[in-house]
Each structure stands twice: as C-alpha cells, then as structure tokens.
Amino acid sequence: MIHSNYKLHIYFIVILLASNLFLGCTKKETLLPKPKTPASTKLTTIASTRSGSGSDIMLQGFHWNSWQYGTWNIVKNKANEIKNAGFSMVWLPPVSKSTGGTGYLPNEWYQINSDHGAGSELRAAINALNSHNIKPIADIVVNHRVGTTNWADFTNPSFGNNANAVTKDDEWGQGTGNYDTGDSYNAGRDLDHTNGSVRNEIRNWLNWLKNDVGFAGWRYDYVKGYSASYTGLYNDQTTPYFSVGELWPDITGNYYASGNGVNYHRQKIMDWINGTGNKSTAFDFTTKWQLMLAVERGEYWRLRDAQGKPIGAIGWWPQMSVTFVDNHDTGPSPNGGQDYWPFPADKIEEGYAYILTHPGIPCVYWPHYFDWGAQLKNKIKSLISIRKSQGITATSSVVIRAADGNKYAAIVNNNTAVKIGGGDWLPGSGWSLAESGRNWAVWKR
C-alpha cells in the first residue's frame, strides 16, 4: 500500500515538538473509488498547451538532501553539462523559505533565501539554465503552508484573514474557510482554494516566479489535496510552457495486479488530467509500478495491456504522461533520504532503456545521472542521444513484439527497436545495434 502523506520530514517533527504546535502528522491511507471504465473510451483529444514541445526530456535537478550541498550553486555549475546531455527542462525543488531543508513545508512564498541557498544564488542558477536554452520548472507547493513565527503566521502575503484562508475541516480545527476540495495533509494547514484571496495570491506568486525569477513552468506538489480544476485555472492565469502534477494514486487491493487490474490506477491519473481541463500533464506512476514489478520478478508480460498498448498512462494518453524511474520521494538520495518505493537498483539501466525509448515525456533522476557512476551516466546520455536522433517524441507509435516471462520488445516510432529482459530477441534484418547493457539493447534503422 502506498501512503498519501509520504513527504513528512523529520525536521518538521522536531520543530513541532519544540514549539508545542499542532501534531497531526500521522500517515494515513486514502481508499480510491471503484475502478471506472478505461479512459481510452472517455478522453478528449484536445491538445494541451502546457505539455511542452513533445520532444522535451526533463532532469529532476535535486534529491531529498540536495539542500545540504548547496542546490542552486550545483545546478548553476552543471548547466553546460546538463545542456550537453540533451535535457531541455530541469525541475527544481521548492524555492521558498520553509520548515525543514527540502522545501515542502513552505513558510513565506516570496522569501527565496532558503536552505537550498541564497536568493541571489537561485537567480544565478535560473539565469545559467535559461542562457543554455534549458527551461527551469519550479516545484509549486500550494496545497498547504506552515507558519513563520508560529504555524498560523501567514506573513508575506498574509491573506488578510489567516483563519479564512484555511479549510474548515483542517486538523487545526479553527479554519473558517470552506471544506477542503481534496484530501487532507496533516503536516501543514490546508489552504482553501475556493477563497478568491488565496487564489489571487497564488496567481500573483506564480507570475512573479515566471516574470521576475525566470521560471518557465510548474511541477505541482500533492495535487490530490485540492480540486484539479484549480491547477487548470492557475495555468490559465500564468501560461507556463510546461505543467506536471504529482498525482500519486494509492495502490488498493492486490499490489501484484496486472492488466485490467491496474486500470483503476491509471484512470485516476486520467481523471485528474481531465479535471484540469486537459491543461496539465501528470507523472505516470502506473508505468513505474508495473515496470518495477516486470524487471524485478521477470514478468515482462505486465508491460502490455489487453489492447496491446503500453500498460501505464502512456498507453492511454502519452502526450500528457511524464515517465520516470525514481524521484526524491521514491528513490534513494545521497546521505539517506525518503526511499519509499525504489526501483530495483540492479535494474536501473533497464528502466531507462524503457522510458527513454518510449512515448511520454521522460524524466531522469539527478542521482542516477550524476551520482551513480560513469557507466550509468554514459548509458543514460547515449539513450537520450538515440531518442533525439531517432525523433522519438511524446506521441511516437509503439508496436509491442514480445511481452512474456523473460523479455519485452517493441518497435517505437517505426525506426527504433528496444528489448529489456534476459530473453533472446532480435528485430530482424536492416537494424544496427545502437546501445546495450545488462539485459537490454536498442537498435535503430
């Protein structure tokens, strides 16, 4: 079972204990409704204007402990290398002053002197990325806030009436706003997005991040905490180049489900995208789930659904699906970290061989590229180069040729063949091997 409140940080607990503030930070599970009709029969085909170019490759520019090493200076110093690797977007952590290092419990939105570094260092990093034609993506935490001198001190901006900015069903018990439009989040005060003053402050802050600081797009944190319609509204009001929501559906029932048994999971992702008015992409947690089980258990048949398409959100709406192997919550970080749902460490190359050759918008985790050694780094860089040279995009075609107990093989974009797993498979005549590793290979023609 995957828990909802997975971002609870030890620093917050320490500060709460020291300050005698509200202690409602227990993890809880949220049950999903019964599975719905597959989204393939329900989705609109209207193209989003917030899904980038279709050829983007994103780098997550941090891990859980990046703030301990000076995030902004590291990114600035790596800007040229990031460009040469082929990344077109870099997702940066929350920039505001916060409780605890990583930034997911923000205090003051406009105060950008944070544990990641000084505001001047942030601006220098943003300028370095922009000068290399790399689009910086800001991590936006607007589901909740914590206070500055105490938990209810919403200074700069104050929203005027603090209690009115907090949902009436928040754990504090004194919020006077409307009921929450999504799931609760115990580690902070849930903001009332039905409140016009709150929405205006969010709009103003996002436009400041874009027009003053230099960001090009948004990664919305914990979007299950408020109605998807507000993400669509904020995107309308700020016109980002790219938007992606962290809609992490709980896995209910059998963790080892496959095929139609996981449709409820990717349906939740589709429902959220639809709820934004099709104005934001979402992370493809279904692909991560099934890809992990496939490589770990030798069950590569998991990667093909009943219609012969890729099993995850990319099988239903690839243009709106951001694929990934790990992130700061799921995977390991240097010097410890969240590590809640890590991809099998000895199968990481297989994971990237899959997402970097398939449709969707792939996102590479910083430690995998910069901290796990030259071999993995070079393989990822080579796969990115192949993706670009072969013209693979978010909507490229996929014809699955094999999906059984020891291999998965597919022809992508009609010019790239990929095989993962230990089983033998060759694409046939007219193909040349482009790259390979332990239990995977990629060919092109």
Name the strands of the widest sheet in spatial order.
1-2-5-8-9-10-11-12
- Per DSSP, the total helix count is 11
What structural category arises from helix and sheet content?
alpha/beta
Q: Topology as H/E string?
A: HEHEEEHEEHEHEHEHEHEHEHHEEEEE
Number of strands: 17
Largest sheet, in brief, is: 8 strands, parallel, barrel
Instruction: Supply Rg.
Output: 21 Å
Shape: globular
Gap between N and C termini: 42 Å
Mean pLDDT: 88
Residue ranges: pLDDT <50 for 5 or more in a row?
1-47, 155-160
> Fraction of residues in helices?
25-40%
Q: What portion of the residues fall into strands of 2 or more residues?
A: 15-25%
Question: What does the model show?
Answer:
With 445 residues, the protein is of the alpha/beta class. 28% of the residues lie in helices and 16% in strands. The protein contains 11 helices and 17 strands. It has an 8-stranded parallel beta barrel, surrounded by 5 helices. Strands 13-14-15-17-16 form a 5-stranded antiparallel β-sheet, covered by helices on one side. The longest helix has 18 residues, at 196-213. It is globular, with a radius of gyration of 21 Å. The model is unreliable at 1-47 and 155-160 (pLDDT under 50).
